[in-house]
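The following block was generated as part of the benchmark described in Methods. Ligand: pyridoxal-5'-phosphate.
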Amino acid sequence: MHYYRPEIDELATKIMEYARWRAELEPVPMGGTATAEDLRNELGPTITPDGIGGLAALKAFTDVLAPACLSVDHNRYLSFVPAAPTEAAILFDLVVGAESIYGGSWMEGAGAAYAENEALRWLTDLAGLDGNAGGVFVPGGTVGNLSALVGGRQLASDRLAELGRPRPERWVLLISNTAHSSVPAAARVMDADVVALPTDDDRRLRGDTVAGALDRYGDAVAAVVATAGTTNLGIIDDLRSIGEVCRSRQVFFHVDAAYGGAALAAPSARPLFDGIELADSIIIDPHKWLFAPFDCCALLWRDPDVARRAHAQNADYLAFLDSFGDWNPSDFAIHLTRRARGLPFWFSLATYGTDAYAQAVETNLEVSAQAARRIQEAPHVQLAFEPGLSVVVFERIGWVAEDYQACSERMLADKVAFVVPSRHDGKPVFRFCFVNPRTTVDDIDAILDAMA
Ligand SMILES: *Cc1c(COP(=O)(O)O)cnc(C)c1O
């Protein structure tokens, strides 16, 4: 299994050809879904004592398994938060896989960590964090949020110890009622309580609301969480007022910008993030709107030392690594072994340059503004809320939840689009999320026609 023999050479050619074909395809297939029973019947056993051989396994993937997955990078996949990795990022992901880099320590993966840090530096600069800031790429926003909040709790706990005050019986996380589901999930893992604060009419959390809650929960607060680009509506909380309250009360301020943080790169949207530089930690998912392949979340720390105190693992068998400088990516989140998953993102940034990123994000913002106009003009649909960033939420006039569901299923079956219903203020809505620069206004028209 570990030697490169002629039959492997044939397999290598086939795999490279397939990967290249998939990268070149325009448009990509929409793909689909299947039941386990369908797949079992079509495939038969694939894991056998003698092996079915690489060519047969590849055929099983290309002919049966891949078509049973949706292509998240399809120009009409507009549900949830899609993805649209660049050609350079996709290709370089193959190299990262071939390279066997241990991405956990500087000593073992210095070159990879250096490049990842360059990409992280671009993000900390966009956010305006100071020069000591740094972080690490983790699998996703969920792990990023959890790692950040554990860091916040560490800092709160250290502060209370310094002041000689007791630790609370229960830690509290102050979040907004629009926070992503991964934030309450993190609280459950931490066995902390969540206090979901109300947002104003424009759905933004504000500093005075946070200040009131801090008066009430005092020393029990482990961190305050704001969202920069809510998943359902693309709304950015009032980061400046929240950040100022957190600074003055010495409370850890985390900004969840998993989806929206990409828009820091777009000059037209940057002012919406005013105050993000006050954050103690930020997450941004390049696998969402910065055109990196799954899985890739940037977790940024204003003071990486806080992360070290919370996350560095110490053991006799790791001591050797610590003697080679202190920037070990494993120290900054909940993990030890890690794929150098920031490398495809770094490679793509290096290849195309940051201006191309700014332009691509602006393109998405422009298409979402055009989509909003189309919705205002069409007789059968109406905007449910003013679009935030690249999320557009709208009603199909006269339809109930079942109609939305049936239309979504029909559009997928007909390979028109993958657009699923969401809810807004208790009412069913359709939701577009634009992160794919290949999506055009013609795509919007075709989808709106399918809803007529
Ligand atoms: C997607 C998302 C997350 C979770 O990120 P994953 O990468 O899916 O784990 C967290 N917060 C927000 C605001 C998101 O949009």
